[in-house]
Amino acid sequence: MDLLTQGLLGATMAQSGAKQQETRLATGIGFFAGVVADADILIQSSNDPLLTIEFHRHFTHSLFFVPLGALVAALLLWPFLRRRLAFARLYLFTLLGYCLSGVLDAFTSYGTHLLWPVSDERVALNIISVLDPAFTLILLIAGVIAFRKYSHTAARVGLLLAAAYLSFGWVQLQRAETVAETLVAERGHHAEEHLVKPTLANLVLWRSIYQFEGKLYVDAIRVGLFSEPRIYPGESIEKFVLERDLSALPTSSVLAKDIARFSHFSAGFLAIRPQQPNVLVDVRYSNLPMTLAPLWGIEINPEQPDQHAKYMLYRDASSATREKFLTLLMGEHILD
Q: How confident is the model at residue 336 (pLDDT cuts 50, 70, 90)?
C-alpha cells in the first residue's frame, strides 16, 4: 500500500508491544520500520526500465526477509537512539513495525513476493486496493490516540478494527466473485482464467477480468452494502500471445525476455493496445473498471530485439473520467 499506511501500520504494531513510557518512541521507530521495506523502489536502472517494477515489492517484502529487514532498520536508528533505548527493545520495535509490510501488500490487488525465495509468485489476495482511505484512517486514529494517551490498548484496538476491515473486504470480494461467475455463465463462456479485484480507494466497485477462447473480457461490478449488485458490461480484447503475435522475435533476445518479465508481473493478462500496435498493456488495471484504457504498459520495437522495452504510464486524471468513476461507484446509470 502507500507509504503513509505502511508507516501507520508499523507505528501501531510497535505501539502495541510497547510499555507505557516507551509508547511515543515506539511510534516513530515503528513508522520508520514500516516504510523501510519500500526502499526497494530505489532499485532502478537507466538501461533497464523494467527493473523498477520487477523489484518493487520483491525480496524486501518477503516473510523470510523480515528479521534482516528489521535489523537493518534498527542499525540505521541505533546511532540516534542508543542513549534512550536498549538495542534489544529497539530491535523489537523495528521487528514489529516491519513484520507486516509484505503481508499488507499481499492483501492488495498489486501483490508482493511474500514467499521469496521459496516461490517467485506475486501473492495478491485482492481484498483491498493499494490506496484505501478508510483503512488508513482506522490506523491513523488508533495511532494518534495511542501516542497521546501513552496507551498500547488503543493501538491494539486499532489493529483489531483494521483486521475487521480486511475481513469485510474479503466478504465483498466473495460477493463480487459470485456475481462475476454468474455473468460468465450467462454469456455461455467458460473462464479459463478469472480475476476480480477492487478499484481504487473503495470496497464497493470491483473489476472483473477473465479469459475465454483467446480473449480477455473486462466488466465492472458494484456490490453495495444495502442494494442489489449491479453489473456494468465492459470491453474485450485479444490476449497477447508471443508465439503468434511476434513469431519472428528470437526467444533469447533482450526484448523477448522483457516481454516475459512484464507478463510475469501482469499475471499473463497482456494485450496489444489497439491504438498503438507497439504497446503491450496490463489488462488488470484501467482508469475505469469496465474499459481497456490502461494504467501502464511497455513500448516494444520488434525491429530492435536487443533493446529493452520502455515502461510507460497512461493514467487519466481528467474530470470526465473522475465523474464517470463516481457514477459507477454510486451505482447510477451511465449515459452513453
A: low
